Amino acid sequence: MTVVDTQLERRLEQLHIWGPYALLGVSAVLAVVSADLMDGPAEWYTAGALVGAALVLQLWWHGTRYRRADRGRSPSPAGAAYYAVRWAIAFVLTWINPFFAFYAATGYMDADELIPGMWRRLGLFASAVIVAGAQVGGLPVTSTAQWLGFAGLLIVNFGLQAFVAHITEQEEQRSRERAQTIEALRAALDENAALHAQLLVQAREAGVSDERRRLAAEIHDTLAQGLTGIIAQLQVVANRPDEVQAREHVLRAMDLARHSLGEARHSVHNLAPVALEHDGLPQALRNTVADWGERTGIRAEFTVAGTTEQLHDEVSATLLRIAQEALSNASRHARAGRLGVTLTFLGSEVILDIRDDGAGFDPLALPARSRTGGFGLDGMRARAERIAGSLTVESEPGHGTALSARVPLVRHDQ
Asked: What PROSITE patterns does the annotation carry (predicted)?
């Protein structure tokens, strides 16, 4: 609520408290001035007693308003009774002297606060009867002309007050709806704040979990594959009595160890693979395929199709890791005689195809990954999906394997 609304509310409250006193005082003064309208001492005594009763009634109602503060300005049976007694006093006073209609007009001020529901229209009508009677010269109405004037004035008075009451009720309804809307928005904001905090926690946990999987995959792609190659070279040394050939394989094992160490250091710092440090993805794949073929003795070919683009580092690293994992799986399981790797730049996509003529397998009958095994197809698929890509595998026992990774073509400058 604004400062202006607060001030207006305070002034209306003061009007409801002191207005009846003021109107009663004005009516009494005008009644004294127009003493010729009252017949004899009886009416004077009666009017004086009723003015005193009206004052006592108003003081009583004013004194009890603090006990009613917890209910606010809401209609109640006590308020309706107070309104009815005050109206009766005003009716008799106006019958004695028409100027007491000013006091009767008090009923226009607070019918909405005192009388519940549709009964407040009856209260307004009753007050309009007194005011209209005073306006035609006082009660009782005797002549036909007075009756016609009384009827017209009653319709006008009641119509105006009923219209004002209708507008007031609509405004109160809008105020209640605004208050309910504000409360609902406050509750929604509180709920959203709690949900936001919960989502932050979940996102943080998901980010930690994803980072753990990524680091595990990085370590596997660097250390595990490098150590596998080193073991293979050392096994050859153990089976070759020729010193020259043994030295050659030892040197290869040392090169693999250095390469794996470099990969491990870059993985720790969350950088791109060593192979991409100085070369783009096509050249890095070409070198990786050539080194793998030389190390395994399997005929391996690499082909680039389409217009070569400089890819975003994350895309290049993802495709290179998938290729490394596929080559590692082929050397361990495929028993292939030939393997081909194709990198295709196709419009908005980059496609990496790896095919071999090895033993093949049934993709639906793969065993669960063990703690000592590699990341395999699940790891490659997770890598592709991490950058909104996909991985498909086609294989059949005895007929080789074809693996295809499709990822969005995101350029280096995007």
From this structure: HIS_KIN (PS50109)
